[in-house]
Specification:
The protein is α+β, with helices and mostly antiparallel strands. The protein contains 1 helix and 9 strands; from the N terminus they run H-E-E-E-E-E-E-E-E-E. The protein has a single domain (about 30-120), classed as Lipocalin (Beta Barrel), CATH 2.40.128. About 20% of the residues lie in helices and about 45% in strands. It has an 8-stranded antiparallel barrel with strand order 1-3-4-5-6-7-8-9. The N and C termini lie far apart (about 50 Å).
Length: about 120
Amino acid sequence: MKKLYYLATLAVLMLAVTSCEDDDHYYILGHWEKVAVVENGYEYPLDYGEYEEYYFYDDGTGIYWSETGIQTEFFWNTDYNNQLYIRHSDGLTERLYYRMRHGELLLSEDWAFNNYRVFR
């Protein structure tokens, strides 16, 4: 009986841990517009015409608008290291690191977040 109890408890704990890992990427679902850039710890507001926008959908697809107004579709996924992989329809693949900060999405090309983009 004790063995069955321990096995059931272990199964529930494994399910809970797996669920937490799988849910991490759901924080980035939705519409995000770039509002600032951080370089070496200093946050700078955007200059006129500096524009970037993402839509992340729960089916692993999305839409990206660049500064030049070009729209591309993409596929995306995340991993356990808070890495975001974006594969654009034009063949370009990006690997970014992401963090959430007070409702903002931070995207960086380096894991230390010395330089990153701020989205709301």
